């Protein structure tokens, strides 16, 4: 905690006889920080953090005053501050490599002659194992059991390693597989809204804040918990006590008015909000929701909106504490003394929203009347691509021509081996009620169950080509669906439980039935997926499915019944009922009154208390995982899941000097909005890929390849999968017709040999040739995948030059010692006429400073040189330190060793 208190604001708050020390914003305002009561609630949380951690070094009086002056400049000045979150949240895909790095740091500490036991999380860390279950089995009562069995069969090494970490590291807890997705477990159990800690014999109270190694950490913003997704690199620094360096953001106020109409759901609202904010442009900004519309909005609806912050591009989507916050804390089983503390603390700090109160000051605002929201989808490949349900059919037909060039085949159908049905373009081959955005929200889950009940009673069934699945975000959901009787109705339509965790949304949809996949690939069928998640980027959901649509859980069920995006759900029937009459969506859509009655009857405090009573214990499978105990990890050199990474090999106490980039070759020329899914290894591992060839060389059978996400603890697999996405296009490579082919291809220069990006990078490394990457706008869009930066580093890339970066990926590049540069407005690699054959040199790197202007010399194939101005996107002095040490982990390790 703080050693200074420049504004004399430390006070004591008495709650039912229990004293809590806290740093009073009201007192700080009286003592020099004028006007801070008008700050957005989210910035008040940041300001309290600075007051509490003021030490004259990482947080100074000047830093605090700069944040307080936000009222004057509304964030345009972008002052630098150091933020220390109360805790860190991880999922296992990103958590395993973070734990691998911590284990490697212990080895590195030994090499530097230090004490490896110093390497421990200094703030509480919760890792939820939720990203490893795959929908291999579906549509039957055994699906859950069989998927869990397969999960443990494939992930034994990883789970052993995680269990070792749970015992080896202090301040580190693991929520076992089969419990739920990290965001929902966080919302329902881990998050407290107000956190407490013992310091110097006192109990301090302060806002619950966090960073998470998943971009959808923002779901907790709905519970007034300020937090966002970071790369594993940043999370590790936070765990090790480093302040998270950031610029004070602009805050966009989103005013909500009115209330949702009958038949309109939270998913429709969040897709509308996402579209509006993407159009507004909120990358790197906070979004804070306010207005009278909050008076009629459940906590679950707020969490649904907050969850989608990465999709609308914001750092966070914050809702303040109010009566609904307290209601949810009570419902979800939080302790009564904690709820009392939340209310007392929030009111004492001016952090409690009441109806009719004065609006905070914002950088800018936009407004939505909830009454204007209509049933919606988003697709076919962008979360912000919202469209009215009424135009979904025509939108798909347009995309069939504009995106896929298949308009002439719109009515054509193709045979499926051994089946009586045929497949056509737009046939829904995946209908998934998947966790994350929606399964924390009982209204849409119960709505889906009631729609299934109504459909089953009419005699409707899912079409036989649809892969149906239900993967709840927590066991609470499964229990209330079971006790309400709605699970039987979902089962009747094929929506059996398949697992607890993140499935279809991250590409864990599992393989399609072989005959379906064969027909799709043989005939070029544009298959469709409809999922209740948040990500529908191309190549993400399934390698066999090109058109992906986000929708509410009831609409997922409806599309399973209709079986095609070429069915207009508003005006055309879903099918024929038992009485021979057509059944329309409006005939089976449940009323909001019925939904709310089911929630009142089945979603209870007792349910939450029982399901979270032994949350860290796990089932028999978890208890049977064998564990080794040692201060440092005993690496198994034959493991294909967990290996000691090379980041600390040969580390010395003093970092080597930084070098200019001379004569670099271009590894890739990439277009706009290249996501971390394109860059980072994700999804299935192809046998013919460099990663597949490596695994076969390690005697791993193809059926045991698993997926990239489960192998994030092995850098040998991951570096081979970097830039290997089946849909990525490297414009430095010419395919048939002159355009770039899909897939991770590169051309080695000057030989002109075409090969995989990995093979090209390794050849350049043998030739001691540095590499750079060029890209367009919003490079690194999407999930906070640390391997998008780690893999880039291990390929030998020294710098990435883009038109703009997504926030997390830019930070991760710096955290791995890679320089990010941006072109001046109006300049791009395309406007410069680059082909990939050029050489690139950048001088002045030894003396680089945050935001520095540099000139890149680009030597063209004919020998002419173009000098192009760039801006260095190292934004802060802390980031500069990380870069000079070769990354954030070597920097922290040297600090601890010293």
From TrEMBL:
Pathway: Carbohydrate metabolism; tricarboxylic acid cycle; isocitrate from oxaloacetate: step 2/2; Organic acid metabolism; propanoate degradation. Residues 78-563 form the Aconitase/3-isopropylmalate dehydratase large subunit alpha/beta/alpha domain. InterPro entries: Acnase/IPM_dHydase_lsu_aba_1/3, Acoase/IPM_deHydtase_lsu_aba, Aconitase/3IPM_dehydase_swvl, Aconitase/IRP2, Aconitase_4Fe-4S_BS, Aconitase_4Fe-4S_dom, AconitaseA/IPMdHydase_ssu_swvl. It is an enzyme of class 4 (lyase). It comes from the Bacteria. GO terms for molecular function: 2-methylisocitrate dehydratase activity; 4 iron, 4 sulfur cluster binding; aconitate hydratase activity; metal ion binding; RNA binding. Keywords: 4Fe-4S, Iron, Iron-sulfur, Lyase, Metal-binding, RNA-binding, Tricarboxylic acid cycle. It holds the Pfam family Aconitase_C. Residues 694-825 form the Aconitase A/isopropylmalate dehydratase small subunit swivel domain. Catalyzes the isomerization of citrate to isocitrate via cis-aconitate. Involved in the catabolism of short chain fatty acids (SCFA) via the tricarboxylic acid (TCA)(acetyl degradation route) and probably the 2-methylcitrate cycle I (propionate degradation route). Catalyzes the reversible isomerization of citrate to isocitrate via cis-aconitate. Could catalyze the hydration of 2-methyl-cis-aconitate to yield (2R,3S)-2-methylisocitrate. The apo form of AcnA functions as a RNA-binding regulatory protein. NCBIfam families: aconitase_1, PRK09277.1, PRK12881.1. Belongs to the aconitase/IPM isomerase family. This is Aconitate hydratase. It comes from Bradyrhizobium niftali. The lineage of its organism: Bacteria, Pseudomonadati, Pseudomonadota, Alphaproteobacteria, Hyphomicrobiales.
């Amino acid at each position: 905690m703080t050693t200074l208190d420049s504004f004399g604001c430390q006070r004591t708050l008495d709650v039912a006889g229990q004293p809590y020390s806290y740093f009073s914003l009201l007192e700080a305002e009286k003592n020099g920080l004028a006007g801070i009561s008008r700050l957005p609630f989210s910035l008040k949380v940041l300001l309290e953090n600075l007051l509490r951690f003021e030490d004259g070094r990482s947080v100074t009086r000047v830093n605090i005053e700069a944040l307080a002056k936000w009222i004057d400049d509304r964030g345009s000045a972008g002052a630098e501050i150091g933020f220390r979150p109360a805790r860190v949240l991880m999922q296992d895909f990103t958590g395993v490599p973070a734990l691998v790095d911590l284990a490697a740091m212990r080895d590195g500490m030994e090499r530097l002659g230090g004490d490896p036991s110093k390497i421990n999380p200094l703030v509480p860390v919760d890792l939820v194992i939720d990203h490893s279950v795959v929908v291999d089995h579906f549509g039957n009562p055994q699906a859950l059991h069989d998927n869990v069995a397969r999960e443990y069969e494939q992930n034994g090494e990883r789970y052993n390693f995680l269990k070792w970490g749970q015992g080896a590291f202090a301040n580190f807890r693991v929520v076992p597989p089969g419990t739920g997705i990290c965001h929902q477990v966080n919302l329902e159990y881990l998050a407290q809204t107000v956190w407490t800690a013992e310091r110097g014999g006192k109990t301090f109270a302060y806002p619950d804040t966090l960073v998470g190694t998943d971009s959808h950490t923002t779901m907790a913003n709905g519970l007034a918990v300020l937090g966002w997704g970071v790369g594993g690199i940043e999370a590790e620094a936070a765990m090790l006590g480093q302040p998270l360096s950031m610029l004070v953001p602009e805050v966009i106020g989103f005013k909500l008015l009115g209330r949702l109409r009958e038949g309109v759901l939270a998913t429709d609202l969040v897709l509308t909000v996402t579209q509006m904010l993407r159009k507004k442009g909120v990358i790197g900004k906070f979004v804070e929701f306010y207005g009278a519309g909050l008076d009629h909005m459940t906590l679950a609806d707020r969490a649904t909106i907050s969850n989608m912050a990465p999709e609308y591009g914001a750092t966070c989507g914050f809702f303040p504490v109010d009566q609904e916050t307290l209601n949810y804390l009570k419902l979800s089983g939080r302790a009564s003394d904690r709820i009392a503390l939340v209310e007392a603390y929030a009111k004492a700090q001016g952090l409690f929203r009441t109806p009719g109160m004065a609006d905070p000051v914002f950088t800018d605002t936009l407004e939505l009347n909830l009454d204007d929201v209509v049933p919606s989808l988003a697709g076919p490949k962008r979360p912000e691509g919202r469209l009215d349900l009424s135009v979904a059919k025509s939108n798909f037909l347009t995309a069939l021509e504009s995106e896929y060039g298949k308009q002439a085949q719109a009515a054509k159908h193709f045979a499926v081996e051994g089946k009586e049905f045929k497949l056509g373009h737009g046939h829904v081959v995946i209908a998934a009620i998947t966790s994350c955005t929606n399964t924390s929200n009982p209204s849409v889950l119960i709505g889906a169950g009631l729609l299934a009940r109504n459909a089953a009673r009419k005699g409707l069934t899912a079409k036989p080509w649809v892969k149906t699945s239900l993967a709840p975000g927590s066991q609470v959901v499964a229990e209330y669906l079971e006790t309400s009787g709605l699970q039987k109705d979902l089962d009747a339509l094929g929506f059996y439980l398949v697992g607890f965790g993140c499935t279809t949304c991250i590409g864990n949809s599992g393989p399609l039935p072989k005959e379906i996949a064969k027909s799709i690939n043989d005939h070029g069928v544009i298959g469709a997926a409809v999922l209740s998640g948040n990500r529908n980027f191309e190549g993400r959901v399934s390698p066999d499915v090109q058109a992906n649509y986000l929708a509410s859980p009831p609409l997922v069920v409806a599309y399973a019944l209709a079986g095609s995006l070429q069915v207009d759900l508003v005006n055309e029937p879903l099918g024929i009922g038992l009485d021979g009459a057509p059944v329309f969506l409006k005939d089976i859509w449940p009323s909001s009154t019925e939904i709310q009655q089911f929630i009142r009857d089945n979603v209870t405090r007792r349910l939450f208390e029982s399901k979270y009573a032994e949350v860290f214990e796990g089932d028999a499978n978890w208890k049977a995982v064998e564990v080794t105990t040692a201060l440092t990890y005993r690496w198994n050199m034959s493991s294909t899941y967990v290996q000691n990474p090379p980041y600390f090999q040969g580390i010395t106490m003093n970092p080597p000097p930084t070098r200019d980039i001379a004569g670099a070759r271009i590894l890739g020329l990439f277009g706009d909005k290249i996501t971390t899914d394109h860059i980072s290894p994700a999804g299935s591992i192809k046998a013919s890929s460099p990663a597949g060839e490596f695994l076969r060389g390690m005697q791993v059978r193809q059926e045991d390849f698993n997926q990239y996400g489960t192998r994030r603890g092995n850098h040998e697999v991951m570096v081979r999968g970097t830039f290997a996405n089946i849909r990525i296009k490297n414009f430095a490579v010419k395919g048939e017709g002159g355009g770039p082919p899909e897939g991770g291809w590169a051309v080695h220069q000057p030989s002109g040999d075409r090969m995989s990006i990995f093979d090209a990078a390794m050849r350049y490394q043998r030739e001691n040739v540095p590499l750079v990457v060029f890209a367009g706008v919003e490079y690194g869009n999407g999930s906070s995948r640390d391997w998008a930066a780690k893999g880039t580093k291990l390929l030998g890339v020294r710098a990435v030059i883009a038109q703009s970066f997504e926030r997390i990926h830019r930070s991760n590049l710096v955290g791995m010692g890679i320089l990010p540069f941006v072109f001046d407005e109006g300049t791009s690699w395309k406007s410069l006429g680059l082909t990939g054959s050029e050489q690139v040199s950048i001088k002045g790197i030894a003396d680089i400073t945050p935001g520095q202007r540099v000139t890149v010399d680009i030597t063209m194939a004919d020998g002419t040189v173009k000098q192009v101005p760039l801006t260095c996107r190292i934004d802060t002095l802390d980031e500069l330190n990380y870069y000079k040490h070769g990354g954030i982990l070597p920097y922290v390790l040297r600090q601890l060793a010293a």
